[in-house]
Amino acid sequence: MLYNCFHSPLMQDLNFSASREYLVAGTSATWSASTISGCHTRKYHGLLVAPQAFPGEDNYVILSSLDETYISGDKSIQLYLHRYTGSDTPSAQQGILAFEANPLPRWWYQVDEDLLLKEIVPDAHGGIMVRYTLLTGKKPIKLQLRPLVAFRNMHSLTRANTAANTATRAIKQGISINLYPGYNDLFLQLKNGSFQPDSHWYYNIEYNWEKERGYDYQEDLYSPGYFEVQMAPGESVIFYGGLSPANTGNLEETFTKCTAGVRKPETLKDHLLLAAEQFLMPDRIKAGFYWFGSWGRDTCISLPGLTLLTGKINLFKSIVRHQLQQIKNGLLPNAGTGTYAHYNTVDASLWLIWALQQYVEKTHSWKEIWHEYGKPLKSILTAYRDGTLFNIHMEEDGLIYAGGPGLALTWMDAIAPEGPVTPRTGKAVEVNALWYNAVCFCLNAATEANDHAFIQSWETYPEKIAKSFIACFWSDEKKYLADCVNGDIRDWSVRPNQLFAVSLPSSPLLPIQQRAVMEKVKEDLVTPRGLRTLSPSDPQYLPVYGGDQPTRDRAYHQGTVWPWLLGHFTEALLKAEGPVALPFLEKIYDGFKYVLDEYCLNNIPELFDGDFPHCARGAVAQAWSVAELIRMEHIISGFKAQQLTTTINTVNQQI
Predict the structure, then answer these.
(1) Tell me: domain 5-247, CATH 2.40.50, correct?
(2) 613 preceded by cis ω (within 30°)?
(3) According to the 3-state scheme, what is the secondary structure of 302-351?
(4) H-only helix segments in 414-510
(5) Which of 255, 370, 507, 635 has its CA 20 to 30 A from that of 141?
(6) Roughly how many angstroms between the first and final C-alpha of the chain, as a whole number?
């Protein structure tokens, strides 16, 4: 299968090309993104989107776009495309012959006999390079490149205003500009080109995705002028945009060096491993593109797949170290870091323990893990047992209770204007499965490290928790687990949260109960794109995720399909069914190769609609979606290898 390669007439059909996005994640949390048509459809699209020295984790759209105009004799052809409010909506994008993103984006434009290639590459310092090559032609052409700048927060839109400082400063082979105080200067350079001052505000550019999502969707962008360069057939020119000036004499060498270091993926696994890198920072994980920052739960769930299974063990430890520094009263932040951290999560700390458990299973370092992390792990367990923020505490039966009015502390945390959609106040099933697993893991590690004091204090808990777990959540009649229990009220909504009681290394359930749980999950929740968050037979089920934010929030965990659940589903189903489950799981995994072409190329999105055809929705690239598919493949491969080893040993014994 040739991934992410599209030709005319598909590329000229905006229904197709404006519905697929590319994302190029550079260093220092920068990115370049748009649709493959070149027409922005989101406020998060931009040629250079970068962090600034403002509080928080937001990025800022600095350079929105670079509008290209091809000029040959009397002929002038616009190769760019914007949607303007009040103007006729274009139905086609002329000139694009083909597009490829394997892995970096490349466009081929055909004008008469001239064939122009455009390529986008991030540089090593957070800038962006755009190379144009006139592949074929009979005579030189002119290329005009007009930068449109925004200098705004990625969540906001800008309008023409008199506060903008539109002055430019001449630099070598280009200009610099800075519209507002507090921003970095933007450096725009083109070797062998000339800059022509021609300042304009471009009014009422429209982003249709934002309109559909119920947000402001119009903005004005400023252009200080345009660059112009003459190109002969066979020649290339490179435009640079960045927050520091480039050495224009080395741009071609820099471009070649940046592209030479990018491997070309061939398989789904190759694409996943390459996609994993875009979420990784020195001390944290970006939860998703475009609008997610650092989220504690997402970080811990993503860590094994993005680091341990990609050979980045030192990065795993660096991120864990940063997470441990954020702990407050036994809790990891739900979102943000430092003074901007919000601790409204009941399970993030327990997921951190699971991540360390994955590290131990890979490195076999039980004793070392307890010596290095035993103190913070003890503090987490003690806080949950004795009580901490948000009414998180252990009750007399050994199970964890959490929450209260207005709170949504589990991963199903959407809050609509009327309040939490799935508050799950009380004893949530996956929280207590994680709690049981965490206590068991810590006892095992403490035993290896001869920590007798901890063992003596905690050794009676696993049996007590397991017994209470079954009594609280299991139904002999229904043959599955309640989703949440609050006093005498048991919520029997069929949700995927119960599968963690099977998938985690230490399960409180008997094997027969594990099989029954997975039969229910498989019957009601599994789709080719992941697991539904609610059974379609439930009256509260919502089949499509879309509309404005309140509408989306109400549907977020009421039927939408989440691919990140597939890692644990794979573990649980193999545990319950054994080798017979392999063909079913392999088919689901293999089906994700088609997702790479459907939404944001080379990426796995946050979620999908609950009903067929399971359209991709939400964030265009999500860390735990990628991470858990990497882990899904690893689990399947490891299980098959184990089966092969067992078969060989059996044959050898018979011989």
Answers:
(1) no
(2) yes
(3) HHHHHCHHHCCHHHHHHHHHHHHHCCECCECCCECCHHHCECCCCCHHHH
(4) 429-448, 452-458, 461-473, 500-503
(5) 255
(6) 43
Instruction: Tell me which fold the domain 268-654 belongs to.
Output: Glycosyltransferase (1.50.10)
Look at residues 18, 22, 236 and name the one whose alpha carbon lies nearest to residue 130: 236
Strand partners, 114: 111
What is the rounded distance in angstroms from the CA atom of residue 67 to the CA atom of residue 82?
9
Cut 0.90: pTM above it: yes
Question: How many helices, marked H, and strands, marked E, lie in the chain?
Answer: 17, 31
Question: How far is 17 from 4, CA to CA, in rounded Å?
Answer: 12
Integer-rounded Cα Rg, in Å, for the chain is: 27
In the chain, where the domains are located = 5-247, 268-654
Beta strand ranges found along 73-167 (DSSP E): 75-78, 96-101, 105-111, 114-122, 128-136, 141-153
Per-residue pLDDT tens digits for 376-409: 999 999 999 999 999 999 999 999 999 999 999 9
What letter does residue 88 receive in the DSSP assignment? P
Strand runs (DSSP E) across 543-602, as ranges?
A: 561-562
CB 35 within 8 A of CB 599: no
Q: Which two tokens stand for residue 619?
A: 């964030």
